[in-house]
Amino acid sequence: MKRKKKIKLGTWAAGVLLAAILLMSLLAPVLAPYDPYQLDMRNALAAPDSVHLLGTDAIGRDLLSRVMYGGRQSLLLAAAATSLSMALGCVIGIVAGYFGGKADLVITAVSNIFQGLPGMTMMIAIAGLMGPGVSSMLLALVITSWVSFSRLVRGEVMKIKQEYFVEGLKGLGAGDLRIMAVHIAPNLMGSILIIFATRIASSVISVASLSFLGLGLQPPTPDWGVMINDARAHFRQAPMLAIAPGVMIVLLSLSVNVLADALRDKLDVRMDSVKED
Fold first, then answer.
1. Angle at 93 between CA 87 and CA 98, to 5 degrees
2. What is the DSSP letter of 181?
3. How far apart are CA 105 and CA 150, in angstroms?
């Protein structure tokens, strides 16, 4: 009983933390005390005080305001990259699992190649070849992330297509496209949602990593990865420049992972109860 309470408390805390980060990011134009682009060279690298709660950066911009705005960029890009990866991976996985044969062999071979390559190394290579920017970063994230969705969807579709209702739909004259889109895809939503939540957390870290390396968002955009990169030259004098955005990245990733684990446990319990009944 104590263990269950701890798990529930941790999940609740993660939900509150994630909600707070989302609200802070969405309401940054209202909550931020200063314009994140406003320069004030006279107060450059100021220590935290009552005027600037987290201090200022090397050109006098308010750190708290930039941290608030930085979440908007990271969350938006992570959600966009994960959504595109999910769409691509689900389409490929459904086709491979449903039709099988040569299509499945080719798709499986390609996914195995991508699965065997180091994800971060691939992202850096793709973003480096295409040049820094949002479009190249999104492409790099999608190319390295679709495999996890496709492999899961392929396995689930191979199980579902053996069910009697699929055979019955074929007997009634339903087309393959209708069966896949209307009757198979909705049965995959639980598993896909878990992978989506997990990938969001890793995408946040990937966005910050690419921006830190200069391959993603570019200064003066208020982004957590960009802020950590800018803080390297002044870390000893003003450690808060790197600590503040770094803590936000860790808290966001941790809260999403905890909620994803809780969601997976909940869905597993439901499936087990159905089997027992």
1. 130
2. I
3. 13
Q: Give the Cα separation of 208 and 210 in Å (integer).
A: 6
Angle at 89 between CA 87 and CA 95, to 5 degrees: 105
The pTM score is: 0.81
Q: Which residues pair with 56 in a beta bridge?
A: 62
pLDDT in tens, 192-247: 888 888 888 888 888 888 888 888 888 888 889 999 998 988 888 899 999 999 99
- Asked if 228 and 210 count as a contact pair (C-beta separation under 8 A), the reply is no
Q: Which residue has the tokens 């062999």?
A: 105
Residues counted in the chain? 277
What is the residue type of 30? V
Q: What is the DSSP annotation of 31-67?
A: H-SS-TT---GGGTTPPP-SSSTT-B-TT--BHHHHH
Amino acid in the structure at residue 186? P
Q: Which two tokens stand for residue 91?
A: 């389409």
